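Final report, Chapter 2: Outcomes

The project's central promise was a pipeline that accepts a single protein chain and returns its three-dimensional structure in a standardized token representation, suitable for archiving and comparison. That pipeline is now operational. To close this chapter, we reproduce one record exactly as it appears in the project archive, with the input sequence first and the structure output second.
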Amino acid sequence: MISLILSIVIGLSGGIAVGGGFVAFLTVLGVVPRLAHLSNSAGLLPYYEWAVMLGALCGIWFSLGDPLFSFNNLVLAIVGLGCGAFIGMLAAALAEVLNVFPILAKRIGLKQKINWLVWAIVIGKVAGSLYHWIFFVQE
């Protein structure tokens, strides 16, 4: 009985810590408003906020169980492209908020060729994702 209560307290504490960090990440850095600004859709900011909140809740729900879905390949491709676009834009917004690209370009000597740096990162992420999907994701 004590171990069950201790497990509940530890799980709840861990969830609060991670959730607090996630909220701090999004609010302090202003990632969601920056994402809306980068995509020229600032009028849709409430929808972005709801999407982040519902996505986090769905992720929590899925991590607590082992859900199985059965969709055809076209639906999976559309959902995958949407998820990839969102994650990519979120990463771009975070990188811009933290001013990562100009600092990295200056340190590796590509200050005049920052477009090359961005394209190298994009191509590397796409190649890595495709490699993972082709070789490690099995049906």
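Archive annotation: The chain is about 80% helix and 0% strand.
This record, like all others produced under the grant, will remain available to the consortium after the project formally closes.
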